[in-house]
Design goal:
This protein has 199 residues and is of the alpha/beta class. It contains six helices and seven strands. Strands 1-2-3-4-5-6-7 form a seven-stranded parallel β-sheet.
Length: 199
C-alpha cells in the first residue's frame, strides 16, 4: 500500500502456498484505507466459502478457476473472472457477460510464473471489456508488458517473491507465497511512469 498499489489480493484456495483463510483475510484487510481495493482470489470455491467471504471486509472476488456462470451468480460481492490467454478472453465475453473486467493470465495457468506472448491479445481499441494482465510479470518485464498490451491494470504474485540464484535450485522460490519488499518496490516503480487504463 505504501509503495502505491491500488489493490491488494489474498488467495483463498487451500492448494496454494499463498492460501489465507477467510479469518486471516479479515485480519489482514480490516484496517486498510477505503481507497485500496481488497480482493479475494478463489478457485472453484464451494458456495459455503463464498458465503463466508461475503462476511469479510472485501470489495470483490476474483474467480480464477473454471467456475460456471451459475456458481458465480452466488457471489455475495462484486466479482470479475480470470481466464487463460486470448482464447479465454474471447470465450469469457460470451460465458461471463456480466464480468465488469477480465483478468487474462498465462495460457499455462495461474501461478506458472512464466512470461507469455502478450502480443497475441486483443488490441486495445477492439476490446469489449477492460483487461487486467497477469502471468509471469516481474520488475524486469512489466513496463514492456504494459507498452505491448495497454491493460487497464496489472496483477502480480510470484514475480515479486524471492528466488534462489544458487546451485541446482536456481530460479526456485526461497519462500513461496512470501513477498520480497525490494522486488515489490521495483515492480511498482517500473509501473509508475507507464500508462495503464486502456480497455
Amino acid at each position: 500500500m505504501e509503495l502505491g498499489a491500488d489493490a491488494l489480493g489474498c488467495i483463498c484456495t487451500p492448494a496454494s502456498a499463498r492460501y489465507r483463510t477467510p479469518e486471516q483475510i479479515s485480519a489482514i484487510f480490516a484496517d486498510l484505507p477505503p481507497y485500496i481495493t481488497r480482493v479475494a482470489v478463489v478457485l472453484n470455491p464451494e458456495p459455503q466459502l463464498l458465503k463466508r467471504l461475503g462476511e469479510c471486509p472485501l470489495d470483490c472476488i476474483q474467480f480464477h478457476g473454471d467456475e460456471s456462470p451459475e456458481l458465480i451468480a452466488q457471489s455475495p460481492l462484486p466479482w470479475y473472472k480470470a481466464v487463460k490467454g486470448d482464447a479465454g478472453y474471447r470465450q469469457a465475453l460470451r460465458l461471463y457477460p456480466h464480468s465488469p473486467a477480465l483478468l487474462v493470465d498465462s495460457p499455462a495457468g495461474g501461478g506458472s510464473g512464466r512470461p507469455w506472448d502478450w502480443s497475441l491479445l486483443h488490441p486495445p481499441g477492439k476490446r469489449e471489456k477492460p483487461l487486467i494482465l497477469a502471468g509471469g510479470l516481474t520488475p524486469d518485464n512489466v513496463a514492456e508488458a504494459i507498452a505491448t498490451v495497454r491493460p487497464w491494470a496489472v496483477d502480480v504474485a510470484g514475480g515479486v517473491e524471492a528466488v534462489s540464484t544458487a546451485g541446482s535450485k536456481a530460479g526456485s522460490k526461497t519462500a513461496p507465497g512470501v513477498k520480497d519488499p525490494a522486488l515489490m518496490r521495483d515492480f511498482l516503480q517500473a509501473i509508475g511512469n507507464r500508462e495503464c487504463g486502456a480497455r
